[in-house]
Design brief:
The protein folds into two domains: 3-78, 3-Layer(aba) Sandwich (Glutaredoxin); 89-214, Glutathione S-transferase Yfyf (Class Pi), Chain A, domain 2 (Up-down Bundle). The chain is 56% helix and 8% strand. It has helices spanning 12-23, 43-48, 67-78, 89-114, 124-140, 154-167, 177-186, 192-214, and strands spanning 3-7, 28-32, 56-59, 62-65.
Amino acid sequence: MPIDFYYAPYSPPCWSVLMVAEALDLELNLKIVKTSDGEHLTPEYLKMNPQHTVPTIVDNGFALWESRAIITYLVNKYGKGSPLYPEDPQARALVDQRLYFDISTLYQRYMDYLIPQMLEPADEAKLKKVEEALGFVETFLEGRQYIAGDNLTLADYSIAASVISFNSVGIDAFKTPRIKAWFERVKTVPGFSKSEEGAKLFGNVVKEMINKKSS
């Protein structure tokens, strides 16, 4: 039975799930959630996910949300032994640290910079914090081919899904040499085209909202 996947095509956290599912050859029953129509606030959705966020999966009655939790779950259940989420405690801890960095620092700072622009001018101080976070990513890649080592892991999928949306709103995420070289490698992973398509949608949504504010 395929896994139900509730998502918004323009949402960066959804893209990593799509890529990981393709890498694991998992069938997803795609269910687009139109947040603009309040579909994430219906009683049915809230019963499944009281935080009313996307992405959300339902796997044989088991509901889970937060993209980084979802991708680790998918590998734990359907890709046991996969190098995407190594079983060695130290290697896995490094992947986990990068995933936590993504949700708490990189993507969070990006949203802190981006969302207020729907109502007010861009805050250059917040942009500096985004650039600092990208500097950390550049440091992570020192002496490594990928974010958490010399092999592709879930950390690459998660952080790639975050940074690919940066350029769509005018932030050059690939101006440093290690990130630029890493991104060229990551572009070859299964399902990456879904992120590129989503980034275009995301950029259009953001630009439309900012234009509405200024009109």
